UniProtKB/TrEMBL annotation:
<dbReference type="InterPro" id="IPR018060">
    <property type="entry name" value="HTH_AraC"/>
</dbReference>
<dbReference type="InterPro" id="IPR032687">
    <property type="entry name" value="AraC-type_N"/>
</dbReference>
<dbReference type="InterPro" id="IPR018062">
    <property type="entry name" value="HTH_AraC-typ_CS"/>
</dbReference>
<keyword id="KW-0805">Transcription regulation</keyword>
<dbReference type="GO" id="GO:0005829">
    <property type="term" value="C:cytosol"/>
</dbReference>
<protein>
    <submittedName>
        <fullName>AraC family transcriptional regulator</fullName>
    </submittedName>
</protein>
<dbReference type="InterPro" id="IPR009057">
    <property type="entry name" value="Homeodomain-like_sf"/>
</dbReference>
<feature type="domain" description="HTH araC/xylS-type">
    <location>
        <begin position="254"/>
        <end position="353"/>
    </location>
</feature>
<keyword id="KW-0804">Transcription</keyword>
<dbReference type="Pfam" id="PF12625">
    <property type="entry name" value="Arabinose_bd"/>
</dbReference>
<keyword id="KW-0238">DNA-binding</keyword>
<dbReference type="GO" id="GO:0000976">
    <property type="term" value="F:transcription cis-regulatory region binding"/>
</dbReference>
<dbReference type="Pfam" id="PF12833">
    <property type="entry name" value="HTH_18"/>
</dbReference>
<dbReference type="InterPro" id="IPR020449">
    <property type="entry name" value="Tscrpt_reg_AraC-type_HTH"/>
</dbReference>
<dbReference type="GO" id="GO:0003700">
    <property type="term" value="F:DNA-binding transcription factor activity"/>
</dbReference>
Amino acid sequence: MFWFKKANGVMSTDPKTELKALHFPMQYVEIVESMLRQRGADAQTMLSRCGLDWSNLDTRKGVLNGEQFKQLLEICQEVADPDKPVSVQILEHVPLTAHGILGIVILTSPTLDCAMQAALRFYPVVMPAYDIHAEAIGEQVHVVIKSLADFGSVQTLLTETLLGAFNSICQFIKPELALFDLYFAHPMQFSSQGYETVADPERVFFSQPCDKIVVDKRNLGAALLTANKTTMQIFEAQLEAQIREIQHSMVYTQETRQIIRQLIRAGKIFSVDDVAFEMGSSSRTLSRHLQQEGTSYSSLVQDERIEFAEVLLLNTRKNISQVAHLAGFTNESSFSRAFKRHKGIAPSALKRIG
């Protein structure tokens, strides 16, 4: 059992990543089509709004871009029963195998621990809209998710659906147990009882500092009924190849982020020229490559300063002013504004929770 931050080895991209730059599996269209038919909607007409021709659609080929994926979620929200959480209604049509090869690897994992590790390692293949990482805190593992793109009015819907899908692993454990606590940053919009088909209502919490699921370490050894080591290894190899492609396409972002993180946490003062020099490049070339990968130097610096500040707030007794200074902010007020903008909570409030 080995839990660590950024468990998948794929570093997060700029939170302002354009939706069109994101790619999602085409099989997600089938989930929406199933929900539309259940609700009595004209699936073909609705899907045509996303530029999709259901009558001539081969879900084995191609990908959805982020704009199309957002439109699919908007359609689900439009036709859903207004008295039930939309995420719950979507999840009724989401078998774990809807996530393709990753779903098969999770299903055939021997234990909950292995299944979660697979999800954390390979999630960019099916859900590039989020950064997902795990941290061991005491006797628990916290799997935290952070949005990398703005999905507007369907952002909370997507977040709820993602954590609900993660929680669905529990149904393949014998005996079936409610092993996860689900935490959502957004306020409660429905009674917690509305989520009972996907999670224990007493283990769903809203208006929290961040979106995450929490599991006790003692439960990670729980065996999956569908375990098959040979099948898991066959499909895991295919996922490895896909992850290598993703990592290769984000090579400058990964290396730049790693250097920035090291410099910030070492308390160094640095510039884009310093980082470019470490990479054997010029600042102009580095900036161009980062732009091609959908991010920027300033965004990566800001993101890493905020991440380091969060670690200090939760794990040290340093006050807000000290944290701001150590994370590289010029003053406490600019730090507080930036932190709340990124995390949705003031550093003082997070400090009290920690």
